[in-house]
Amino acid sequence: MKELKSIVDENVFVNLRRSKKKSENFTLFYKLRDFQNGLGTVVDYHENQQINIGFILPKKIVRKSSTRNLIKRWGRELARRNSKYTHILLSIKTLPRYNFNIAKKNLYLELKHLINDA
User: Fold this and answer.
1) What predicted TM-score, i.e. pTM, was given to this entire model?
2) Into how many domains does the chain fold?
3) Rg, C-alpha atoms of the chain
4) What is the extent of the structural domain holding 69?
5) Residue 106: how many CB atoms within 10 A of its CB?
6) Which of the four pLDDT bands, split at 50, 70 and 90, describes residue 98?
7) Residue 38, number of CB atoms within 10 A of its CB
8) Band of the pLDDT at 41, cuts 50, 70, 90?
9) What stretch of H or E contains 52?
10) What does the DSSP assignment read for 66-100?
11) Which of 22, 41, 54, 72 is the most interior residue, by most CB within 10 Å?
């Protein structure tokens, strides 16, 4: 299982601002994993390397702590399953009303497509 670690270094934030993907409700800042070293050979044990992950979930947008925790759980699990990133910073722009299960499922699928698409 991959180890997840929080992002605390300020230099990482500056580098992550360069590459981002947007969806309707989320913005994903990321750094791709380099599977090859300078010699052109595949790096050993790239599956066991850690993934640094961070979340920007303002209380002004996501009012309930249970909703913030749910988005964090989804993000951590999707990042753990994905091996192409070394750093992920997930920011939320808007939160639609998701009182129904179908709306919650659509929000999860949006996050899943954002993280899994290259």
Assistant:
1) 0.77
2) 1
3) 15
4) 4-116
5) 15
6) confident
7) 6
8) very low
9) strand 51-56
10) HHHHHHHHHHHHHHHH--SEEEEEEEES------S
11) 54
Asked if 5 contacts 50 with a C-beta cutoff of 8 angstroms, the reply is yes
The pLDDT of 72-79, averaged and rounded, is 93
Domain with 112 in it: what CATH number?
3.30.230
On the question of pLDDT at 48 being above 60, the answer is no
Those residues whose C-beta lies under 8 Å from the C-beta of residue 118, and which sit 6 or more positions away, are 84
d(CA 80, CA 97): 27
The pairing of strands 20-22 and 26-32 is antiparallel
Cβ-based neighbours of 43, under 8 Å, separated by 6 or more: 34, 35, 36, 37
Do residues 80 and 1 lie in contact, with contact meaning Cβ atoms separated by under 8 Å? yes
